[in-house]
Amino acid sequence: MSEMAAAQWRIVLDEAHTALRTAVEGVPADAWDRPTPCERWTVTQVLQHATGDQLAFASAIVGGPGPTEDPFAPSGRIEGDKLVDLRAALDASARAWANVADDNPQVPTPLPQGKLPAHVGAVACALDAAVHAWDIAAATGQPSPLGDDLARPLLAVARQIVEPLRNYGAYAPAITTSPEADEVSALLAYLGRDPQWSAGKR
């Protein structure tokens, strides 16, 4: 990805955090056990995973507690208000990134790649939030939280970081799309998701 304009990555991260928060707030009370585009995971499990990943980014940058359970083996059980932990994780992530200089070339991340330039690491963090916002929205019949303006920078960074992550099971193999696919569809397909996924056609 070419060097982002100063602070542009902050806008991307904020939009992705908002997308995840909004998608989770919109989950109907009876939908937490529904299947999602993340194979074998329910809406609750995707929420737990996404929450843990945001905490992991915050912990990598500023220290402090990380996720309390393995984000890649979510239990599917949350006692009490399901939004409390997510809101705290998003706030922690936002605060951590707020202390990172726009041009910092070596920001610690929880990814196998380790330290990354600020604009790459922050958009990687945003990518995780945004794609799981889409997973939850798709599973619960909400409008897609992704638009082309958000998908564009996410896809640019995804193409830099995702291939090694597939070896860890973080992403499924890419799905082929037509050259005419819009940027949201291209992003989802690259991350191994069917852009037309719905619970009824899985």
TrEMBL record:
InterPro entries, per database record: CHP03086, DinB/YfiT-like, Maleyloyr_isom, MDMPI_metal-binding
Pfam families with a match to the protein in the record: MDMPI_N (PF11716)
Residue intervals of the Mycothiol-dependent maleylpyruvate isomerase metal-binding domain: 13-137
GO molecular function, one term: metal ion binding
NCBIfam families: maleylpyruvate isomerase family mycothiol-dependent enzyme, TIGR03086 family metal-binding protein
Name of this protein: Uncharacterized protein (TIGR03086 family)
Phylogenetic classification of the source organism: Bacteria, Bacillati, Actinomycetota, Actinomycetes, Micromonosporales
